[in-house]
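Figure caption, in words: inputs first, then the predicted bound structure.
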Amino acid sequence: MTDRATALTQTFIDDLQGRSPGEEAWIDAVEAIARDVLTVEKANAAFAAARVLERLAEPDRVIAFRVTWRDDAGRVQINRGWRVQQSNLLGPYKGGLRWHPGTTLPVLKSLAFEQVFKNALTGLPLGGAKGGADFDPRGRSPAEIERFAMAFMAQLAPDIGPDRDVPAGDMGVGARELGLLSRAWMSHARSWGGALTGKPLCLGGSPLRVEATGYGLVYFLCVMLEAAGEGIEGRRIALSGRGNVALHAARKVRGMGGKVIALSSRAGVWHAPDGMWGDSIDWLAEATGEDATDPPGRLGLDFLAGQKPWSLEPGIALPCATQHELDEDDARALIDGGCRFVAEGANMPLTPGAARALERAGIVAAPGKAANAGGVAVSGLEMRQNAGFARWTAAHVDTDLRHIMRRLHDRVANEGRATDSAGKGCAVDYRRGANLAAYRRLARAVVDGGAL
Ligand code: GLU
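Bound structure (glutamic acid present):
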């Protein structure tokens, strides 16, 4: 970062910090973008006069509510719920709902802010939002999840709708929960679907929405490798997580000829030095509890308790678990092991220290707002299908997803290349490219929309 960028970012962040005690998660997210875009803002009179970044950083509105419901024993349970409607400049508010005990408002504000930039990169008419609750669905019965979903939607329903705010899933909220939420919204609104994406197919969902984030990540990775004159064939790829994103990315890596050497959970890593078979990935998708830590010998998987995938010397790393899962020590392990490419399947999986270490080591790293945008992009296609009362085939959606990821990559790479400080063809700075490409699209909309 130049001295001028550092000074501008410091002034901007000091002001935000002074006004926002306890909101570090959100301030970190704003700072990560501010350091790339503030010099561009100051150099453009219209952007500077409109105070674009300051405006984008403040959510349009935050909706906070109590969710009260009864568990299976008849006891009253109370949770906190939120929807952060960050910006509808480019389209209806759009972003996932997260049900996780660690959910707080500053975390949702940081994710909503990121989502605005991610959605802008897709090129689709999508605003940005994020929401959720501090509810832990793990260990809850189907009936409890249903009662929670009904109570949650009773609070949220008045504030969402197909051209207003269209939530989707995120951690703890998958197709089943979206089916429940969608039905609940339909009965509140006396209207057919279209207010949520990621719904089951039979309730108006899109083919391939479930697979989209993982598949899109691998499509992005392939274009990224191609831009560096390389390919995915035979590459040793480590993924973290074994949720929706990681599993579908792992299947697509295999399908495209790469080797999946690791998947993981909080308990440890499943390691296959020569690459996992399809059967191993299917087994990992199903295995639960103690069973999962003791894979049958026929699968050729070692379980390494308490470990992370980053010390297994992958050439490519795809963090797909959760935010800040990959710290500075992990970054060091990747660098020492000869890793050359990182693409984020999760939202903000790198700590700021890890991101800096990878950057210093010259590792090509694509941020989640670019690399994992396939999920929200297919949500955009689901909205299009719902609005047109249409149902596309999986092949149609897959073709669109591939095109969207390629165009998105090229938009980001052009910015990342064009702004390279050395000015000569060295590796693309994907982080900077993504921040700038999204910022320019948003800034033009802010300026053309006037002072509102
Ligand atoms: N939660 C996903 C994301 O982080 C999907 C959002 C959506 O489809 O609206 O992008």
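The radius of gyration is 21 Å.
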